[in-house]
Automatic annotation (TrEMBL):
It is a multi-pass membrane protein. CDD domains: ClC_sycA_like. This is Voltage-gated chloride channel family protein. The lineage of its organism: Bacteria, Pseudomonadati, Bacteroidota, Cytophagia, Cytophagales. It comes from Algoriphagus confluentis. SUPFAM superfamilies: Clc chloride channel (SSF81340).
Length: 402
């Protein structure tokens, strides 16, 4: 009876959360495409980035309440389950991210989808009373649905929602709800709404020899360090803005002036927005070696100053272009190194090696699985006790140290 009740409960909750998060991601992706196309056709919009930043900062400061914490608020509630996630988080992060991209900020989309999924999922417990453990599973479902639907990777979405807590308190009861919610959200976004995702490929896989695997270890170290650099850059810039500028709405205004000025002066339009075209190029042709550093800097400045958006697609950009640059010294296929960097830097910055490995196989094919897994694990181990989520509990990361 207990098993039947569990299955019925989470079939229902998972279906509802999947529909909500998948639909939210579909709307978000359509609006994001519109914002990107509009900006690319009207590059003068970059001049308005400071005003957009002030508007975003003003709304969050006066009306956002604890929504300003973003993904870290979700993590804190997954650990402690004290306060409800406000529904206002969904429209705030949705439109904040759209405006960031429309006017030329360098940001991603994962954070937006995860926050929308978690916020919408948590509204259910306002009408249906749940204990702390069931509410935690509900939030996990929201995270899984948001991640799975925004990238088209249902298995990785489920694993990410379980792995990113990294607290050593793994709960088997969460597995089925996370997987079910992720798949429902993916189906709703891609099949019901007809919103597709970017297609990637690694056309050539190197032989699985000891020397080739050793080269991936070397690359994985670089990916881990790049992930840590990405995270620390964002944290450092955020702390500097908070220290120097006391009125929060002014922070993204100043950040917008700096981003727009840098882009205008250096003609660095390649590095604003998501940067998906450049990511695709990284799988096909050699690129300037400094691409990954430029993306780290502009993304850190954008998000650290208070603009909204995710970090994951910029991490994909950073990893793919770093892998591309390493192909000059590492004798492995360019696309394979770009793919390993794509998920490896993501693994190092988020401390989720299993989710990143599975995501790589969902995006690039299972033939590259060993290389992807080795790159993600190495990057994870070499990135240290840090990451893009400041609320993430990393006390158990190096469990063998006690």
């Amino acid at each position: 009876m207990i098993l039947v009740r569990y299955l019925l409960q989470w079939l229902g909750f998972g279906l509802l959360v999947g529909i909500l998060s998948g639909s939210a991601s579909a709307i978000f992706l359509v609006l994001l495409d519109w914002a990107t196309e509009t900006r690319e056709a009207n590059l003068w919009l970059l001049a308005l980035l400071p005003l957009a930043g002030f508007g975003i900062g003003y709304v969050y400061y006066h009306y956002g309440a604890n929504s300003v914490q973003g993904n870290n608020l979700l993590l804190e509630e997954l650990y402690q389950t004290k306060n409800p996630i406000p529904l206002r988080m969904t429209p705030l992060v949705l439109f904040g991210t759209i405006f960031t991209h429309l006017f030329g900020g360098s940001a991603g989309r994962e954070g937006t989808a995860v926050q929308m999924g978690g916020s919408l999922a948590d509204q259910i417990q306002k009408w249906i009373p749940l204990d702390a453990e069931d509410r935690r599973i509900l939030l996990i479902c929201g995270v899984a649905g948001g991640f799975a639907s925004v990238f088209g990777t249902p298995w990785a979405g489920a694993i990410f929602s379980l792995e990113w807590m990294l607290s050593g308190r793994f709960r088997p009861r969460s597995i089925f709800p996370a997987v079910w919610s992720g798949w429902v959200a993916h189906v709703i976004c891609e099949w019901a709404w007809g919103v597709g995702h970017t297609s990637y490929s690694i056309p050539e896989i190197a032989p699985h020899t000891l020397i080739n695997l050793s080269w991936i270890l070397v690359a994985g170290i670089a990916f881990g360090l790049a992930g840590r650099l990405f995270a620390e850059t964002g944290h450092w810039i955020g702390a500097a803005f908070n220290k120097v500028i006391s009125y929060p709405p002014l922070r993204p205004l100043v950040g917008g002036v700096l981003v727009a000025g840098l882009v205008y002066l250096t003609d660095a339009y390649t590095y604003i927005g998501l940067g998906v075209p450049r990511i695709l190029e990284a799988f096909e042709t050699p690129l300037p070696w400094y691409d990954f550093l430029a993306k780290i800097g502009l993304t850190g400045l954008t998000l650290g100053s208070g603009f909204k958006g995710g970090e994951v697609t910029p991490l994909f950009f950073t990893g793919a272009t770093l892998g591309n640059a390493l192909s000059v010294w590492i004798p492995l296929p360019l696309a394979l190194l770009a793919g390993c960097g794509f998920v490896g830097v993501f693994s190092g910055a988020t401390n989720t090696p299993m989710a990143c490995t599975v995501m790589g196989m969902e995006l690039f094919g299972y033939e590259a699985g060993i290389f992807l897994g080795l790159a993600c694990l190495t990057a994870y181990l070499c990135s240290g006790k840090g990451g893009i989520y400041s609320a993430q509990d990393l006390s158990k990361k190096y469990f063998w140290r006690g």
